[in-house]
Fold this sequence. Notes:
This protein has helices spanning 15-27, 67-77, 91-96, 98-122, 185-204, 226-235, 255-268, 285-299, 329-335, 343-356, 358-364, 368-377, and strands spanning 5-10, 31-37, 57-61, 81-84, 131-137, 208-213, 215-217, 240-243, 249-254, 274-277, 282-284, 311-314, 382-385. It is of the alpha/beta class and 387 residues long.
Amino acid sequence: MKFQKNILITGGAGFIGSHVVRLFVTKYPDYHIINLDKLTYAGNLANLKDIEQAPNYTFVKADICDFDTVLALMQQYEVDGIIHLAAESHVDRSIKDPFTFARTNVMGTLSMLEAAHRYWSSRPEGFEGKLFYHISTDEVYGALKITHPEGIKPPFTTTASSLEHHLAYGEEFFYETTKYNPHSPYSASKASSDHFVRAYHDTYGMPTIVTNCSNNYGPYQFPEKLIPLFINNIRHRKPLPVYGKGENVRDWLYVEDHARAIDLIFHRGKVADTYNIGGFNEWKNIDLIKVVIKTVDRLLGRKEGEDMDLITYVTDRPGHDMRYAIDSSKLQRELGWEPSLQFEEGIEKTVRWYLDNQAWMDHITSGEYKKYYDAMYRDRVCLSSNK
């Protein structure tokens, strides 16, 4: 079958990647979607069971650091577009094992870039009709100060803005022009990969785009991240480990909205440009956790908020950034994108999904995950709890 485009998506069995793969496979039947994933701890083909038999979908198990294999895949499938999501992405893991993050996020990205450069340069049309789209994080910008701990009215409002909790905790925001200032091994590795992507445009003229996103949440997220971890712990009435005082602020983006933004930018974004993708939703961790607890309790038929006593404050992690807050106005203004769900709506959908798919969660949280969870929190000092 002759396809209009052959799109290689790396990390397509992971959390964000699986949503992007599903969207492209179902929305563009004339595109051949090649999902390249190493299937490490967070990659799970069960995330894509609903589309795995689609005629325009191919899965390839491979490592992005394996340059020869990546180049051969591009040649075999005549790849003309790359959406690069594969990455190590958990700050705590990067503190324990920075070498893995440098290897995957820096050298893996470089492997992808050079393979694309060599293959596309060998084609008669060269870079015409080609694109290397690199998905990154807002953590490369560093951290913002919490100058208004009580919260103030933010300078922007979207469909996703909470009716009851639409606050900003400072006057500053991350813009596409914000200077990079990464603080963790994870964010440093992503910053380096971003620079390599831009360098391939500036040096070789390769068409590239970089986007930096805020914290994602939604279905199919590996439960080392806050929201699925806490949903599962509330379900089993296990402690909810909150770093420090729970006052760190994050901007939250529903993953399907992120996938829509990636689709839009891939097709209409300006080459060599950068776009921030955020949810316009700042929440202190402790306030978000209380919303999750109330939602899980209500949907499980428990008294709303009865599991608040599971909150357990533990020793903060080293270098924990206080506030991330993305301004996505450029994407909204130039390409017409904005989030579709208010945060409370997104949390309701997310909690329902995890409760309705408990077999998926139980499988994920067995075996190796249990070892990881025990190792991650065993040595944390319990400072206090609500009990």
